[in-house]
């Protein structure tokens, strides 16, 4: 579900930048209430490609905006959760990945 949460955060950011309420966006997408948008933005509701395409059209952006910026780390962590890896182990792996990224960023700057 982490991927859906990241997509939801991007939708929320775009919606707020455009000055739309959840209800406004829901109306433009054909939903009856803003509840669906609320759940999508929180990552609690999966969004299909058709709905994502409609959202991209509302904001006049390419659909890959939502997908191409999802980090490899997020995909890895999502896969680990799907394999029922314990949260403590996932946290440890995430910490290692974060440290490796920081080291890589430092090396890239030098």
Can you walk through the features of this model?
With 110 residues, the protein is mainly alpha-helical. The chain is 74% helix and 0% strand. The chain is built from seven helices and no strands. It has helices at 2-18, 22-29, 35-42, 49-58, 64-67, 72-82, 87-109. The chain is globular, with a radius of gyration of 17 Å. The model has no long low-confidence stretch (mean pLDDT 83).
What's a concise summary of this model?
The protein has 110 residues and is mostly helical. It has helices at 2-18, 22-29, 35-42, 49-58, 64-67, 72-82, 87-109. Helix content is 74%, strand content 0%.
Topology (SSEs and partners):
Blueprint: H1 2-18, H2 22-29, H3 35-42, H4 49-58, H5 64-67, H6 72-82, H7 87-109
Helix pairs in contact: 1-3, 2-3, 6-7
The pLDDT mean sits at 83
Strand content: under 5%
Number of helices: 7
End-to-end separation: 36 Å
Total strands: the figure is: 0
Alpha carbon gyration radius: 17 Å
Helix coverage percent: over 70%
Shape: globular
What can be said about the biggest beta sheet? none
- SSE topology string: HHHHHHH
List keywords for this structure.
mainly alpha, 7 helices
